Amino acid sequence: MKNLKTPSLPAVQRAMAVLEEIAQSRSGLSLTELTQKLKLPRSSMHCLLVTLERCGYIQRGTARGRYHFGAKVFSLMNLALGGVGLREVAKPYLRNLVRRTGLTAHMAILAHDQAVLIEQMVPTGVFRVSTWLGKSLEVNCSALGKALIAWLPEEDLNRIVRDHAFPRLNENTIVSPRKLFEELARTRKNGYSIDDEEADIGSRCLGAPVLNSEGRVVAAISVMGTTSQVTPENIPALAAELKRTAAAISESLGYGCESDPAVEPPAATGL
Questions:
Q1: Of the given ranges (23-27, 109-113, 167-171), which has the lowest mean pLDDT?
Q2: CA–CA distance, 263 with 110 (Å, rounded to integer)
Q3: Phi, then psi, of 262 in degrees rounded to 5
């Protein structure tokens, strides 16, 4: 029997109702549509939507101001469902990667066109990084993001580049579509990606794709360190170690092809 002694919070119930309505809509819902569906005052609905948007659970699209799920919903979903399995499979490999490289290791999935962290391992005695599970990273300036989108079908990749105004975090950040496509082409050719102080000055990161049994990129892993830890001289060795780890995780997920994922990249060259 349900415990009815403790009252439910109406505001929370209404917020959950908003998310449930948006979940059932293929093209998102406007303020007017949500107001009509849930029979709430327009001012109350506006406050609910603003709060959910500020928290990252919904976002308003440019087309007619319709609301869709935000990155936070997708990160929670993947952490609770698909991400858990990936994390459990990857943990021993990432732990070994940290031991062999002495660098921080991350694992991320692509959720709502952003790289969302689902695992993080930091070496003992190394400075704490400003990342956490569930954090979203821009795909244009993170090694994880580049590794996640480089092997997308051309149509999907073009849509991400076309629909996003990528923020410039510093002078090294790639924001030009042409330069980003060139960077992704190098990623596919090499089989790994690089964030060379593009997100944070003084930090370098290498990323590699993780494939499932169908040969589809379902996650990416990375090693991250300072510019004195990740140097032009040791990048080849670190990249080889990273790719071996990614290949081992992919094999554990059922990927049986022996060829490098960089061998047959999609031909995405522009919008």
A1: 23-27
A2: 22
A3: -80, -10
**Stretch (H or E) spanning 120:** strand 114-121
39: confidence class by pLDDT, cuts 50, 70, 90: very high
Backbone angles phi, psi at 58, to 5 degrees: -135, 165
Question: Tokens 């049986």 appear where?
Answer: 256
Packing angle, helices 71-80 and 82-101, rounded to 10: 80
The superfamily in CATH containing domain 75-252 is GAF domain (3.30.450.40)
Structural domain spans, the chain: 10-69, 75-252
Nearest to 206 by CA among 219, 197, 195: 195
Q: Quote the Cα angle for 98-99-104, to 5°.
A: 25
The neighbour count for residue 215, using CB atoms within 10 Å, is: 15
pTM: 0.70
CA distance 251 to 241: 15
Mean pLDDT of 214-228: 95
Alpha helices in 170-211 (DSSP H): 177-190
Q: How far is CA 42 from the centre of its chain?
A: 34
What's the whole-number mean pLDDT along residues 32-46?
93
**CATH assignment, 10-69:** 1.10.10.10
Q: What is the mean pLDDT of the chain?
A: 86
pLDDT surpasses 50 at 149: yes
